[in-house]
Description:
The protein is an alpha+beta fold. It folds into two domains: 140 residues, Immunoglobulin-like (Sandwich); 60 residues. The chain contains six helices and ten strands.
Amino acid sequence: MKRLYYIFLALGCTIAVACKQNEPLLYTDIARAQFGPDPTVYYSSSQIYGDTLKNQSFAYLATDILVDTIYFDLYTMGAPSKVNRSFVLKQEQVYGTTNALPGVHYKALDNPEISKHYVIKAGATHHKVPIVLFRDVSLKTTAVTLKFKLIDNKDLALGQPGLLWRKVVFSDKLIKPAAWSGSNQSQFYGAYSEAKHRFMISATGQKWDQEFMNYLNGAFTEPVQYWMSVVKSSLATYNAANPTNPIIDEVTNKAIVFP
């Protein structure tokens, strides 16, 4: 009996430690901040590292829209404060890519017009962080990367190391959504090309961006099956009407096809 007692005691300690390690908030000693996913899935251990990258394109917007704002979710650890707490963001260069230029591609993170919004209000533990993007002419031909990270300050220290940064890749051309990959690509969309992407948009009136594909990636397959049937039917109609003028995939230089 004594031996069984020690076995169960050790097992209980192991489970307790494992559960503690799976908690998304590990630091509660002092006020800290870190990024996270949407509040609806924040306490899901499988989602805590989600939403680290956003792909954004002005190509979906009207030509007279020159500024766009995207948002990331920021959280604090510890008890809510009775006073407002500011946080600081700083750009981090990404090697091997074209880095966004402050004042050209985005509003500088230390610009008072934007940094004044980098405040977590008294009583709050969550904040939608705005990042303002500019539709510079260079984005017509180039996608740029803006990676930024939290910097500790007098109000908030840093949280978990893996949750201190976020990245947005944006341009004025169509960008392959992150969801256009894996089984989605092999079963529904096929290899990505901008020509195919544009045709899907024109055939359905949907953007086929990350938000729309996240919706299609829900618990059921009917939505994606329905929309892909619309796409395929539209492509068949187009090809029948234009037998000598197919829509060409700019990557393969062949007519676009779907699985």
